[in-house]
């Protein structure tokens, strides 16, 4: 187990960190699929490049989370294919609504992910500095994606859409915590 000098995690702390990082891993699967779905349907070549770039960054986050979950002696969610396929479809539907709405969808997604990662920072065991560093970097990157989507002209989504997104995310994170 790759733990930093002077920081030993108990079995319970290791299990909790692994569950939270598994949730983050699932979120990164979903995020890259959302962006690839949006890229698939946009007609704007520059926007397509930006969506692919964001998806590639999410893939880096995915690898960090996967590596950390395994370091902690656990496994990633067994439902990755479901998270990816469902998210790709959702991303494509957001993209079909038009680029401004698609960018607004990206901004709202990243806003919710940033809030989610903030919660995880408060839930991770205090002495699991490695997981904390990963989650902080992911949070900062997601904030950058959100800000870029707004600068590019993303429009604010209706509250009903935001609540639907929160509900879908809550289901995914709840299941990924255990499976």
Outline the structure in words:
The chain is an all-alpha fold and 179 residues long. The chain has one domain: Ferritin, core subunit, four-helix bundle (Ferritin, Up-down Bundle). The protein is 80% helix and 0% strand. Helix 1 runs antiparallel to helix 2 (45-71), helix 1 packs across helix 6 (159-178) and helix 2 packs antiparallel against helix 5 (129-151). The longest helix has 31 residues, at 11-41. The mean pLDDT is 93.
Defining traits:
6 helices, Ferritin
Strand content: under 5%
**Quick one: overall form?**
elongated
Helix share, percent: over 70%
Tell me the major beta sheet.
none
- Using the coordinates shown, work out and report the CATH topology: Ferritin
Low-confidence stretches: none
Query: How many helix segments?
Result: 6
Write down the CATH class.
Answer: Mainly Alpha
Derived structural class: mainly alpha
Could you tell me the radius of gyration in angstroms?
16 Å
CATH architecture: Up-down Bundle
Q: How many independent structural domains?
A: 1
Please tally the β strands and state the result: 0
CATH level-4 homologous superfamily: Ferritin, core subunit, four-helix bundle
Order of helices and strands: HHHHHH
Mean pLDDT: 93
Terminus-to-terminus distance:
22 Å
Brief summary of the model shown:
The protein is built from six helices and no strands. The protein is mostly helical and 179 residues long.
């Amino acid at each position: 187990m790759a733990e930093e000098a002077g920081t030993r995690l108990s079995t319970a702390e290791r299990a909790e960190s692994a569950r939270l990082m598994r949730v983050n891993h699932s979120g990164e699967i979903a995020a890259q699929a959302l962006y690839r779905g949006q890229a698939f349907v946009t007609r704007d070549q520059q926007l397509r490049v930006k969506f692919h770039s964001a998806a590639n960054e999410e893939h880096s986050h995915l690898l960090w989370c996967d590596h950390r979950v395994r370091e902690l002696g656990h496994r990633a969610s067994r439902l990755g294919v479901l998270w990816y396929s469902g998210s790709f479809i959702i991303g494509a539907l957001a993209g079909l609504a038009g680029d401004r709405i698609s960018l607004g969808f990206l901004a709202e997604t990243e806003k919710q992910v940033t809030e989610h990662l903030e919660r995880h920072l408060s839930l991770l065991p205090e002495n699991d500095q490695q997981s904390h560093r990963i989650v902080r970097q992911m949070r900062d990157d997601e904030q950058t994606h959100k800000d870029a989507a707004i600068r590019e002209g993303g429009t604010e989504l209706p509250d009903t859409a935001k609540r639907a997104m929160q509900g879908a995310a809550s289901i995914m994170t709840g299941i990924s915590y255990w499976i």
